[in-house]
């Protein structure tokens, strides 16, 4: 693929990702409050001042307003621009992996990139909701599972490579199945929300590289979850009351596995 075309695709993916990142902060605020996400202008949560179009430009508005509401001057957390930047980066990654670096401007390349971008967007929403409310709503996880399978099935059919759907199904069975067993044995430690999300994550990992990458994703999730949980318990001196949501670690471990999994796997297998 032409360098200029590739650069343009990645820049466009970044801008689209910033806009969807802004929408992710809205969705993650409204979904747990059972508000509609398809209509209604955003309001300042402190003074209910309606946020105009110029105050709603991803990252730029936050910087221009110096992180404060224009009306009441209540601080707007850095998590808003950070969420937008993270979503932008994830969309760039999806475009890079499935279109630009794969040199695949075919329909299946774009369908795969769009499906993974939608997957990443939903993981951003679930991460924010889980951090704030300690829950992974079925209203988000179920549609993600269905839409994910529709998108991946479309890509596989266009490519004429149905074996990847079998890989995705095996991945779902490994990731989700393992968590189901853990939740069955140790229900205090793992919620059913994590189990359901595990089936989704296994699907998206399995579709790429089969079971090897699924195991890398699970390993990274547990590693991150374990290390950070111990850190939080030590610094807060928390007891059993300090509940740490596991969803964000699952999301992060899966994204890292998709980004670094194949080199990690090659290095590991190369050592034996
Ligand atoms: Zn305000």
Compute the number of strand runs: 0
Number of helices: 9
Helix percent reads over 70%
**Class computed from helices, strands and strand pairing:** mainly alpha
**How many domains, as an integer?**
2
What is Rg?
20 Å
Write the layout of secondary structure elements.
Elements lengths: L2 H28 L29 H5 L14 H22 L6 H27 L4 H22 L3 H23 L6 H18 L1 H26 L10 H24 L2
Helix pairs in contact: 1-3, 1-4, 3-4, 4-5, 4-9, 5-7, 6-7, 6-8, 7-8, 7-9, 8-9
Bound molecules: zinc ion.
Structure description:
This protein is an all-alpha fold and 272 residues long. The protein folds into 2 domains: 1-89, no CATH class; 106-272, no CATH class. 72% of the residues lie in helices and 0% in strands. The chain contains 9 helices and no strands. The chain has helices at 3-30, 60-64, 79-100, 107-133, 138-159, 163-185, 192-209, 211-236, 247-270. Helix 4 (107-133) packs antiparallel against helix 5, helix 6 (163-185) runs parallel beside helix 8 (211-236) and helix 8 packs across helix 9 (247-270). It is globular and about 55 Å long. The relative contact order is 0.09. The model has no long low-confidence stretch (mean pLDDT 90). Zinc ion (ZN) is lined by residues 44, 46-47, 49, 69, 71-72, 74.
């Amino acid at each position: 693929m032409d360098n200029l075309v590739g650069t343009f695709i990645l820049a466009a993916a970044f801008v689209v990702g910033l806009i969807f990142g802004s929408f992710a902060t809205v969705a993650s605020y409204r979904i747990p409050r059972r508000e509609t996400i398809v209509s209604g202008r955003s309001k300042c949560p402190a003074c209910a001042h309606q946020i105009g179009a110029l105050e709603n430009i991803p990252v730029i508005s936050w910087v221009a307003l110096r992180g404060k509401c224009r009306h009441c001057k209540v601080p707007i957390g850095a998590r808003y621009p950070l969420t937008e930047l993270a979503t932008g980066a994830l969309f760039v990654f999806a475009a890079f992996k499935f279109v630009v670096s794969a040199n695949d401007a075919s329909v299946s390349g774009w369908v795969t990139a769009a499906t993974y971008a939608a997957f990443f967007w939903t993981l951003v929403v679930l991460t924010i909701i889980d951090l704030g409310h300690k829950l992974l709503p079925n209203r988000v996880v179920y549609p993600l599972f269905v839409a994910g399978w529709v998108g991946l099935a479309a890509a596989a059919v266009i490519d004429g490579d149905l074996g990847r759907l079998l890989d995705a199904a095996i991945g779902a069975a490994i990731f989700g199945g393992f968590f189901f067993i853990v939740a069955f044995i140790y229900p205090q430690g793992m919620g059913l929300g994590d189990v359901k999300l595990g089936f989704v994550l296994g699907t998206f990992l399995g579709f790429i590289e089969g079971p090897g990458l699924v195991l890398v994703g699970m390993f990274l999730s547990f590693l991150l979850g374990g290390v950070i949980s111990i850190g939080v318990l030590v610094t807060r001196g928390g007891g059993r009351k300090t509940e740490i949501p596991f969803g964000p670690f699952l999301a992060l471990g899966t994204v890292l596995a998709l980004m670094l999994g194949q080199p990690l796997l090659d290095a590991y297998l190369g050592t034996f």
